[in-house]
Amino acid sequence: MTLLYVEDNEDVRKTMTKILSRYDCRLLVASNGQEALEVIGEEDIDLLLTDYHMPKMNGKDLADILKERFPDLEVLIISAYQADDIGDYEFWVKPLNVSKFRRRIKKFKEDCKQKADL
Fold first, then answer.
1. Model confidence over 21-63: pLDDT tens digits?
2. What is the SS3 assignment for 2?
3. Could you please report the per-residue DSSP string of 35-97?
4. What is the CATH number of the domain that holds 14?
5. How many CB atoms lie within 10 A of CB 54?
């Protein structure tokens, strides 16, 4: 499983990267949407975890671009502010409930494993 994490706030990015690195997955990290597109290159990604409000490109626009390339991509958009225009994407409000978030990532990993076993 490959997870792309995109967050413009350096402190939040460092903290979340530590949390996400505990999972057995390939973790790609970027500080904005533009950089995210460069970081993934030709990689396949399974999960996009992105902040909504970022410079250069917001999280929804990034998700829309990546969904065209990866139709089965799971997307979680996170923001400290309400975002009304996220479409069908899953939305979480900061600050995150870490235990609930960990359960969500664990469930996603289990779902990926089940798909791979089919």
1. 988 889 999 999 999 999 998 889 999 999 999 998 999 999 9
2. strand
3. HHHHHHTT---SEEEEESS-SSS-HHHHHHHHHHH-TT-EEEEEESS--S--TTSEEEESSP-
4. 3.40.50.2300
5. 23
Could you give the CA distance from residue 89 to residue 115 in angstroms, rounded to a whole number?
Answer: 20
State if pTM tops 0.90: yes
Instruction: Look at residues 31, 34, 69, 68 and name the one whose alpha carbon lies nearest to residue 51.
Output: 31
**Total domain count for the chain?**
1
For 87-115, what is each residue's pLDDT tens digit? 889 999 988 898 998 899 988 888 887 87
Q: Which helix (H) or strand (E) holds 5?
A: strand 2-6
Whether the bond into 71 is cis, omega within 30 of 0 = no
Domain range spanning residue 37?
A: 2-117
